[in-house]
User: Fold this.
Amino acid sequence: MKKALTILGFLAGLPAGAALADDDCFVPMAEWQPRDAVERLAEE
Assistant:
C-alpha cells in the first residue's frame, strides 16, 4: 500500500513541476543561447 501511495504522490507532482517551470522564462526563443554559453556564464 505504501508503494502505491508513493507512486501516486510522485505522479501527482509531475504536472505541477511542468506548470511551474514556465513561470520564469520570458526570453524570446530567438534570444536563447546554447547550453555551453550558459555553462560558461555560470562559471564566471
The helical segments are 2-21, 35-43. The two ends are 48 Å apart (CA to CA). Residues 3 and 9 are 10 Å apart (CA to CA).
